[in-house]
Amino acid sequence: MRLNGEISHREGEGEGEEEAENEVGSSQKVVVGYALTSKKKKSFLQPKFLSFARNKGIFFVAIDLNKPLLEQGPFDVVLHKLSGKEWREVIEEYSEKHPEVTILDPPDAIQHLHNRQSMLQDVADLNLSDCYGKVGVPRQLFVIKNPSTIPYEITKAGMKLPLVAKPLVVDGTAKSHELFLAYDEFSLSELEPPLVLQEFVNHGGLLFKIYIVGETIKVVRRFSLPNISEHELSKVDGLFRFPRVSCAAASADEAYLDPTIAEHPPRSLLERLAGELRRRLGLHLFNIDMIREYGTKNVFYVIDINYFPGYGKMPDYEHVFTDFLLSLVQNKFKKKPDT
Ligand SMILES: O=P(O)(O)O[C@@H]1[C@@H](O)[C@H](OP(=O)(O)O)[C@@H](OP(=O)(O)O)[C@@H](O)[C@H]1OP(=O)(O)O
Ligand SMILES: Nc1ncnc2c1ncn2[C@@H]1O[C@H](COP(=O)(O)OP(=O)(O)O)[C@@H](O)[C@H]1O
Ligand SMILES: [Mg+2]
Ligand SMILES: [Mg+2]
């Protein structure tokens, strides 16, 4: 946290700084260095968010990727979502030299979500169930090399068709979102490993996106793939690629839906799941794609976890994010030994 006069270059320098002090009633400021793609910057650093944050004394400063990070700042927080080993090394070196700066989030924790096997392992290990419901992971099989063994492996594992085939690696490229529905096990050998094959779970065509920002949880509904009946399964064979059916445009929050399908997961279950995942994953910023097994009251499956997702689409994100950033820095301030 910076006190008056310590600020170097920052986003919108000088604009509204006076208001910031009047508004915030303090001369404390928080400087957040960010390294984001231009797409992410556009969707996340919306003008309304920047001005709201500035009025709370939070300033966003673009990290210059053409200059050494160690020569930039000073920052209270570094917020990043860039791919590649080189960037990971830059952030790791910076974090070692600046333990006082909060890195959102540590690269090795983010890396955990770049593989669809390690991504869901913590949920599987949790085996979360209480009087409010149960959270698991669909049965899945990982295919690392030879696709010709898939039919045998599927049968041996007793996996139920249809299956969803997903690239094992999630690296922000469009390829990592190329998903297929397989109605028979033989067509799967056409796919290119490494893959994860997940049992398709009927869920009434609705998915819950559980956004996590530190301790805050926000749930939104999105349309999803429709149920697949036994009859359809008996008549259809083959492999079908499908688009990103649950993207932001597929919001179901305003739609009239069957309450047994659309009722949000119990809050207590979400609090436990979010708390456990925050701790085990070591992440502050992620969302969880969760589905309710069709016909059950509260049997849920986590099918995807995303690092630093599209918070710009999350209701009230300006307030949630600024409160989160302030709490991060204030908690750090409290922990500082009296100097
Ligand atoms: O994988 P999903 O469920 O579509 O969520 C995406 C995803 O997190 C995506 O990141 P990446 O996997 O392409 O790196 C996000 O893109 P941005 O980082 O550019 O925002 C999407 O925003 C996520 O969508 P959503 O926020 O609806 O979960
Ligand atoms: N096991 C599954 N059962 C039913 N539908 C699924 C399953 N896995 C994925 N889907 C559907 O496919 C969509 C994308 O899958 P997901 O694992 O979230 O990949 P991505 O990272 O590309 O979002 C989900 O939003 C959901 O509609
Ligand atoms: Mg998803
Ligand atoms: Mg995803």
Automatic annotation (TrEMBL):
Function: Kinase that can phosphorylate various inositol polyphosphate such as Ins(3,4,5,6)P4 or Ins(1,3,4)P3.
Lineage: Eukaryota, Viridiplantae, Streptophyta, Embryophyta, Tracheophyta
Organism: Arachis hypogaea (Peanut)
Gene3D superfamilies hit by this protein: 3.30.1490.220, 3.40.50.11370
Family recorded in the similarity comment: Belongs to the ITPK1 family.
Signal peptide range in chain numbering: none
Keyword Kinase in record: yes
Binding site for 1D-myo-inositol 1,3,4-trisphosphate: 40, 81, 177, 209, 306, 310
Top-level enzyme category: transferase
Keywords: ATP-binding, Kinase, Magnesium, Metal-binding, Nucleotide-binding, Transferase
Protein name stated in the entry: Inositol-tetrakisphosphate 1-kinase
GO CC annotations on file: cytoplasm
One Pfam assignment: Ins134_P3_kin_N
Domain named Inositol 1,3,4-trisphosphate 5/6-kinase ATP-grasp: residues: 132-326
Co-factor remark: Binds 2 magnesium ions per subunit.
